[in-house]
């Protein structure tokens, strides 16, 4: 979605009523962010909306990107926010071989998640299992971590359920999203 460098378009202030609605939508979509919502979007701070190419809206606080949204799709967290609150989002892990493809903007394919280095939610794992025990469904926003790396490298929307991925072991796993080094990552809002 953001393969090329992008330049920010018009910047406008979000009305307080819309800001409250966004806060509610965030806590409904990402319940683990609820304790941090006042840090992320303080009630007394002004949230800004920055228009980006291809009908993408970026919500920022001062010059800090928080969430982006394509038309009326899901609110997707910016990787900077994911790095600050890594345990608040559903996540999967890709194997080492898939890293270079993801960071070059290629579509994330299922084999990168189902091979030995990849991780999907596992039933029967203990509560401390990093990748969860609940199967994820198409349309859910997930964060992708890479084998052997500390920070997440991709955030996007699932195209198929994790149960289906385990069964089929092929196909597209996620729709285009936001990855380290893409145009959204390098966007200068200052």
TrEMBL record:
UniProtKB keywords: Cytoplasm
In the UniProt record, which is one GO cellular component term?
Answer: cytoplasm
Concerning SMART domains, the annotation shows: PUA
User: Where are the bilayer-spanning segments?
Assistant: none
The answer on whether this UniProt entry bears the keyword ATP-binding reads no
Q: Where would you say this protein principally sits, based on its record?
A: cytoplasm
Write out the GO biological process terms.
Answer: formation of translation preinitiation complex
Domain PUA, first and last residues per copy: 90-181
- Pfam families attached here? Pre-PUA (PF17832), PUA (PF01472)
What's a Gene Ontology MF term here?
RNA binding
Tell me which InterPro entries the record gives: MCT-1/Tma20, Pre-PUA, PUA, PUA-like_sf, Uncharacterised_CHP00451
What CDD domains does UniProt report for this protein, alphabetically?
MCT1_N, PUA_MCTS-1-like
Subcellular location per the Swiss-Prot or TrEMBL entry? Cytoplasm
Is Cytoplasm among this UniProt entry's keywords? yes
Homology family: Belongs to the TMA20 family.
Q: What does this protein do?
A: Involved in translation.
What name is this protein filed under? Translation machinery-associated protein 20
Organism, scientific name? Delitschia confertaspora ATCC 74209
Q: Which taxonomic lineage is given here?
A: Eukaryota, Fungi, Dikarya, Ascomycota, Pezizomycotina
């Amino acid at each position: 979605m953001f393969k090329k460098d992008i330049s920010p378009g018009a910047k406008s202030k979000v009305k307080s009523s819309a800001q409250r609605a966004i806060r509610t939508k965030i806590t409904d979509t990402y319940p683990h962010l609820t304790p941090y919502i006042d840090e992320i979007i303080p009630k007394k701070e002004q949230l800004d909306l920055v228009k980006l190419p291809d009908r993408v809206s970026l919500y920022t606080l001062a010059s800090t990107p928080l969430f982006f949204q394509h038309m009326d799709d899901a609110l997707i967290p910016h990787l900077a926010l994911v790095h600050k609150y890594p345990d608040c989002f559903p996540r999967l892990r890709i194997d080492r071989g898939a890293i270079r493809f993801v960071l070059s903007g290629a579509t994330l394919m299922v084999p990168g998640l189902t091979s030995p280095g990849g991780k999907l939610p596992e039933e029967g794992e203990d509560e401390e299992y990093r990748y969860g025990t609940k199967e994820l469904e198409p349309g859910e926003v997930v964060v992708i971590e890479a084998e052997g790396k500390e920070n997440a490298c991709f955030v996007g929307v699932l195209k198929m359920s994790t149960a289906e991925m385990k069964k089929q072991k092929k196909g597209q796993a996620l729709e285009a999203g936001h990855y380290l080094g893409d145009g959204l990552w390098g966007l200068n809002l200052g």
